[in-house]
Amino acid sequence: MQQTSAPDKRTPYWWEDAPVRPLPETPLAAKADVVVVGAGYAGLVAALTLARAGRAVTVLDAMNPGEGASSRNGGITSGNIRMTFDQLKRRYGEGRALAIEAEGKVARSFTYDFIRSEGLDCDFQLTGRFYGVIGQEQYESAARSAEALQRKLGIDSFAVPRAEQRNYLGTDYYRGGSVRMDIGGLQPAKYHAEILRVTLASGATVHSGCPVTAITAEGAGFVVTTPAGKIAARQVLICTNGYTDGAVPFLRRRLVPVRSRMIATEELPADLMDRLMPRRMMASEGKVLGFYYRPSPDGKRILLGGRDASQSGDPAAPTLMLRKGLIGLFPELEDVRLSHSWFGNVAMHRDMIPRIFDHKGLTYATGFCGSGVVWAPWIGSRAAHKLMGGAQGRSAFDMRPPPAIPLYAGKPWFMPAFIQGYRMQDRIALARATR
């Protein structure tokens, strides 16, 4: 019998080991070389980079540092790009398309080197990722993509036929898939806490519960206004992503906050985990609204996530939908309880590519489209180098701002309809797939 009662907790599973807390109150400086807005992965890595280069840096966050997506995500180091290579080539030309794909490999290496060189205690494991397909047509495409990644970029990637699927994932739902060995998993709240630790040690100042209410140009710089006072800055870097508010209306008209929800099971027997996730890999699937899932870092639970069409409160229906998806993949979990259900905002936009851009003197590092574990630190570091004028600031993701969304000013009233449309696309694709 399926669980119908609420999960034990409505807070992120990750907060059990790394709770998000306010920082001690400190006076706001009168001036800074750089003010960074947003203390998630991108903002903190940018601040760390700038502070170590000798800049006076102040980071402002309306919430507690990391309280947004940085401590709520799945902790999968995917570095996905939503557009296919062919789509990138049609829109930007082959040269930039290749540069974007190649930079994804560099960004993952940056993440892994950063964790190692800084000694970040975040339960990182380079496990690989299994990508499940829903039909033979998708399998052929996934196999070609895996071969291309291996041949063009030297990424350890290979196809997995259905007959070998259970060696990687204990489900019969898929019709094979592919594996990339350059993707792993970490504990995202621990990762953020460790980045915050080294950023504070670098000399950057970070303020929690300090929302920006206005940014105005003044002389050769800017004045950033907060409830705690004003701060003059030569440069301002915006890193707010899925929690962008009215203080930066230009960005707010371009980013759509979309809820992504996760559930965690209770602890499972070791033999059951060995059957369902024998290699303890990260996992995703070939659907528009596909699930992403993984074992917990200790290998005792399964955590599964997906898009959530709700926009207010914390309704039960999205949790039950994820549970239904979990059981569809692993029928053996029908009677297993859920320990946690939570959500956070990811930021989508019309181009669906992370980016760095400038507008009226302000620099933005944002738009991670659900893959911020890799992209946010990388884009934040490149934006910092751009502010300093160094060659390291060059990036294939430094481009024009994403286009504004018509009739949109921050409230994504259209998302429930879009989510339902995507679900219909998945149902049609499943019906048409050669199973």
Structural commentary:
This protein has 435 residues and is an alpha/beta fold. It has one domain: 3-Layer(bba) Sandwich (FAD/NAD(P)-binding domain). It has helices at residues 41-52, 85-92, 94-118, 136-153, 188-201, 249-252, 270-276, 317-329, 372-388, 415-432; strands at residues 31-37, 57-60, 129-132, 157-160, 177-180, 205-207, 214-218, 221-226, 229-238, 256-265, 282-285, 292-295, 302-308, 338-348, 355-359, 362-366. Strands 1, 2, 6, 7, 8, 9, 15 and 16 form an eight-stranded mixed β-sheet that branches. Strand 12 and strand 13 form a beta hairpin. Helix 3 crosses helix 9. The chain is globular. The mean pLDDT is 94. InterPro entries: FAD-dep_OxRdtase, FAD/NAD-bd_sf. It holds the Pfam family DAO. This is Oxidoreductase. Residues 33-384 form the FAD dependent oxidoreductase domain.
Descriptive tags:
oxidoreductase activity, 10 helices, FAD/NAD(P)-binding domain, 8-stranded mixed β-sheet, alpha/beta, about 425 residues
Using the alpha-carbon principal axes, give the shape.
globular
| Number of separate strands | 16
* Category by helix and strand content: alpha/beta
Largest sheet: 8 strands, mixed
Helix content, binned percent: 25-40%
Q: Could you give the order of the helices and strands?
A: EHEHHEHEEHEEEEHEHEEEHEEEHH
* Relevant CATH superfamily: FAD/NAD(P)-binding domain
From the alpha carbons, calculate the radius of gyration and give it in angstroms. Answer: 21 Å
Count of DSSP-assigned helices: 10
What is the averaged pLDDT score?
94
Low-confidence stretches: none
CATH topology heading: FAD/NAD(P)-binding domain
Count of separate structural domains: 1
Q: Briefly, what CATH class?
A: Alpha Beta
End-to-end CA span: 28 Å
Relative strand content: 15-25%
Q: Please tell me the CATH architecture by its name.
A: 3-Layer(bba) Sandwich
Keywords: Oxidoreductase
GO molecular function: oxidoreductase activity
InterPro entries: FAD-dep_OxRdtase (IPR006076), FAD/NAD-bd_sf (IPR036188)
Pfam families: DAO (PF01266)
